[in-house]
Amino acid sequence: MKKSEQSDTGWYFLAGVIILYIIVALIKPAALLPSLKFFLNIIIKIIPVFILIFILMAVINLFVTTKKLVKYFGKKSGVKGWIAAIITGIISTGPIYLWYPLLNDLQKGGVRNGLIAAFLYNRAVKIPLLALMIVYFGLTYTIILTIVMIIASIFQGLIVEEIVEAKA
After folding, report:
1. What does pLDDT average to over the chain?
2. How far is the CA of 146 from the CAs of 18, 32, 91, 119, in angstroms?
3. Does some domain include residue 38?
4. Cβ distance 110 to 76 under 8 Å?
5. Residues 109-144 pLDDT 10s
6. Residues 27 and 96 both lie in one domain
7. What span, in angstroms and rounded, lies between the C-alpha atoms of 132 and 143?
8. Which domain holds residue 150?
9. CA-to-CA distance for 53 and 121, rounded, in angstroms?
10. pTM for this one?
11. Can you give the pLDDT at residue 157?
12. Pair (44, 76) in one structural domain
């Protein structure tokens, strides 16, 4: 699918959900009201989060440009670029597929492929889960594994750069 094309999948899904609600309303009307109440409770709880995310995205889009990011992650980024890729990979949250469009734009803007690979690799290191890992595996194991993963991410990034450059 080309970037200019838009997918109608979301609309089909919405239509399917509405049809299912109509079917449930016809077959078992008593089950519909609790389901709608549950849905509304969830919407009311997540609206503040959506507003916060919208504000953060607007501020980021206002102040952070691809040119600024390429400055830190471009071909001449050096050690600072690797450190930034590792740290941002570790602190990044959310599902990975939401990061792909941004990473694609950064790649097209001149960000090194190795840094993108290191970012993706370091998403496996999660600060909130380190405490749990320490409980199950011990402090020494957790520290060694984390360090090995960070070092491996650099090697992975360098390998990706070599392969991509050799292919180009």
Report:
1. 86
2. 46, 48, 14, 14
3. yes
4. no
5. 888 899 999 999 999 998 888 888 999 999 999 999
6. no
7. 13
8. 66-167
9. 25
10. 0.62
11. 95
12. no
Question: Does the residue 15 lie in any domain?
Answer: yes
Residue 72 pLDDT > 80, yes or no?
no
Largest CA distance in the chain: 64
Residue 105 · residue 115 · CB < 8 Å: no
> What is the mean pLDDT of the segment spanning 44-51?
86
The kind and range of the H/E element at 113 are: helix 113-122
Q: Answer yes or no: do 70 and 57 share one domain.
A: no
Identity of the amino acid at 111: V
Domains in the chain, number: 2
pLDDT band at 5 (very low <50, low <70, confident <90, very high): low
Q: What does the pLDDT read at residue 22?
A: 92
Give the domain-ending residue among 62, 84, 99.
62
| Measured distance CA(149)–CA(143) in Å, rounded | 10
- Average pLDDT of span 32-56: 86
Going from the C-alpha of 61 to that of each of 54, 66, 96, 110, 132, the distances in angstroms are 10, 9, 20, 18, 35
122 within 8 A of 86, measured Cβ to Cβ: yes
Would you say residue 32 lies in a domain? yes
Q: Is residue 3 one of the residues assigned to a domain?
A: no
Measured CA to CA, the distance from residue 147 to residue 138 in angstroms comes to 15
Spatial distance between the Cα atoms of 97 and 106, rounded to a whole number of angstroms? 15
